[in-house]
Amino acid sequence: MRELKPDLAQVTPPGGCAPAAADASLPLWCRAASQRTRDLAWCSLSPALLSHLPDGYPDGPARLAQWPAGAQAAWEAWLSQADPGILPETIAELSLHPDPTGSRSLRLGRHAERLLHFALRHTQGVDLLAANVPIRRANGHGVQTLGELDVIWRDPASAAVVHWEMAAKFYLMVEGVAGHRAFVGPNLVDRLGDKLEHIVRRQLPLGRTAEAQALVGHPVDRSEVYLLGWLFYRDGIVPAGLDTLGIAPDHLNGWWAPLADWHARASDPSRSHLRWCRLSRSDWLSGARVADSATETAAAMHASLAERFADAVHTWRREGPVMVCELIQDEAMPGIWRERSRGFVVPDDWEARAALRAGAP
Q1: How many domains does the chain have?
Q2: Of 149, 199, 258, 278, which residue is least crowded by CB atoms under 10 Å?
Q3: 300: in domain
């Protein structure tokens, strides 16, 4: 076992729901009572993952997303007062009454796009022109689908037409086999560098094609990356030098640790006042608020995770990291626990597999 590090919630710098001393000072995507409000606030108000595009991308039409001046503040004021009943349903709510047409995706990324579309439609100073527009081109073999434009909007003040490509991603930082540092998805399929490359080199240029202009009815003036998410670090320790990769200093972050390391910290007597919960993928976006009956002690969670990682039948249970949330009691709402930190508990062999993925071409 590695040498134990300090308290995860203390190591992780501001960038999540933990640092606030009082609930009122938490961001809306942490403090709102309704998950509908929290998820919508997260998709439209939470910090971006990047402060700038990393080296290697030439200066040109691609840039990071920027809202019109004052638009986000006006939207936040509206959302903080909005009745949750008029807001889009959560994925869990949507799953209770499936779309009979089969066209409504319950994937987390698609849901985040829907929430952003809702926000833009209700934001003063933004004219949403189109969303999820498929771009097709006729060729000798028929009609080819080139891709899809996530968002096209216009700034009334400047009349500029902007194309946004949105992604909501969750990556764990690992050291590759050759010392190459990379951010990989928990299932080891996705990598941050690959995703950014795809957005900048493949998706953004679609907005400037003749086919896109014909469908939208306007030429695109700006092409921008709207990248949100959480990054997770071994033991919650954020290394120096991430600014050279374009990582924003205020990005949302958490921790990851093997089961034994996590349990050694979680079971410390000084943490006996805390509870835990597992976060299903549909709950990964915003800060968690959990009823007392849905929480677990560290001992109970350790037992269930140990059983999961020992599953001899289901590979996905044995090999897949689990996102868990450390909870502290909400003093303002009896019976409710709110997020203090979040992270992935990983199987013992996950780090070695992740290191191979990090160094792969």
Answers
A1: 1
A2: 278
A3: yes
